[in-house]
Design a protein that fits this description.
The chain is an alpha/beta fold. It is about 40% helix and about 15% strand. α4 crosses α14, α7 packs across α8 and α14 packs across α15.
Length: about 400
């Protein structure tokens, strides 16, 4: 298989007069722009391995697309070269990989996925003024520390929670307000605990009563006790914020125990917007809603990318779409910087108005490292597919709510 990170002999000799000139002057070959090294950090082993592998896939596909399109043109067609690091699903693993990438001479890093990894990795990168683009990492602490090297392209959980509550209120009112009581279920780490705290504050302002807040560890091997607590409370809505394995386990346990609330309205859930869950456990996934990262179903590039991923036997997830977009964001910054210079790339990112992504966002604009144009959408599993139900300008389906038992 050809190495898409380096120019082939055919690419070097492409063209007529240009090709002849290169043959006549082999010194030109030696002077060709060197590859631009970029760090891709993902947890591809450990509890978060599945998400990390999808993130890695998205980054690889973006690098290939950029190189196939001619590389960084302002640097003489320099190719992007991936320096990959496995964060091993821990903050310590992420920090260790940043140190290795620093030694490799990367111009910037993309990824991290989980909030604890992103917090540690961005801090480590800041010691070297190394630009870091966070792919997911929803904890708002990541961008609230004044680190000039840190840029988060996607929304944080403050924005996501606000949008989730806003859309839940609209959903409930449109259906005649069938839901009043809520049980929150969340993973007990930085992401889940912070999000649950925000939901506890916001939901009562809109007439919802939070009956209980149930924390669980990651990884978790059994959700029977959580399901029993939900059954005892008998809420109208269950709002889970968990990683993939834990929510799949919870949804299947609720299905087996015939616990049927009027709706499962997930927020930043690892499985509710994941085709693997939908295909492997269709009954447990049916009608589950989520407020999460997602791709823009109106964009042909997004649809083509999904087709390519699925043709390769892989599931298309938001991790793929978000990392694909983050690498393109970085390439755009390097293009405008015109050099593999960390300071210039950081400046280019801070001034970015990048529009070549496949996310359902407004205009890209970074304030204190946060892309204020980023926002989540609401999805729902319908008919074995994942549909966008809010906001209307991105929607390709109407919501099903309340769910009939």
């Amino acid at each position: 298989m050809k190495d898409h990170l380096h120019p082939t002999r055919r690419a070097v000799l492409g063209g007529t007069a240009a090709g002849l000139g290169l043959v006549a002057m082999p010194g030109v070959l030696r002077a060709q722009a060197p590859a631009v090294k970029i760090g891709i950090l993902q947890p591809v082993t450990g509890a978060l391995a599945q998400d990390g592998q999808f993130g890695q896939l998205g980054a690889e596909l973006a690098i290939k697309a950029i190189n196939d399109a001619g590389g960084i043109k302002s640097m003489g067609g320099a190719r992007l070269q991936m320096v990959f690091g496995d964060a091993r699903s821990t903050p310590e693993g992420g920090t260790a990989e940043v140190e290795k990438m620093q030694a490799e001479g990367v111009v910037a890093i993309v990824g991290g996925f989980a909030s604890p990894i992103c917090l540690a990795a961005t801090q480590a990168a800041s010691r070297y003024d190394l630009p870091y683009i966070v792919d997911v990492g929803v904890s708002d602490q990541i961008v609230n520390r004044g680190l000039k090297n840190t840029f988060r392209f996607g929304p944080g959980f403050g924005v996501v929670t606000s949008r989730a509550v806003q859309n839940l209120v609209r959903l409930n009112e449109a259906a005649g307000k069938p839901a009043r009581t809520v049980v929150l279920v969340h993973e007990d780490g930085l992401f889940g605990s912070g999000l649950a705290k925000l939901m506890q504050t916001e939901l009562p302002k809109h007439g919802f009563e939070v009956l209980d807040t149930i924390a669980h560890p990651t990884p978790a091997r059994d959700m029977s006790n959580v399901a029993l607590q939900i059954r005892a409370r008998n809420p109208d809505l269950v709002i889970p914020s968990s990683y993939y394995g834990e929510f799949v386990l919870l949804a299947r346990t609720m299905q087996q125990q015939r616990i049927r609330p009027k709706g499962i309205y997930a927020v930043l859930n690892g499985a509710a917007s994941n085709f693997r869950f939908v295909k492997e456990f269709p009954d447990a996934a049916a009608n589950v809603m989520d407020c999460n990262h997602w791709y823009d179903p109106r964009k042909e590039e997004a649809l083509a990318l999904r087709r390519a991923v699925e043709a390769g036997g892989r599931f298309f997830t938001y991790n793929v779409a978000l990392n694909y977009s983050c690498v393109k964001l970085l390439a755009d910054a390097i293009e405008r910087a015109g050099a593999a210079d960390r300071g210039k790339v950081t400046e280019a990112l801070s001034q970015s108005t990048f529009a070549g992504h496949i996310m359902p966002y407004g205009a890209t604009r970074f304030e204190n490292g946060q892309n204020v144009g980023a926002a989540p959408v609401n999805t729902q599993v319908q008919g074995g597919d994942i549909k966008v139900i809010f906001p209307e300008e991105f929607a390709d389906a109407k919501p099903v709510f309340p769910v009939q038992s």
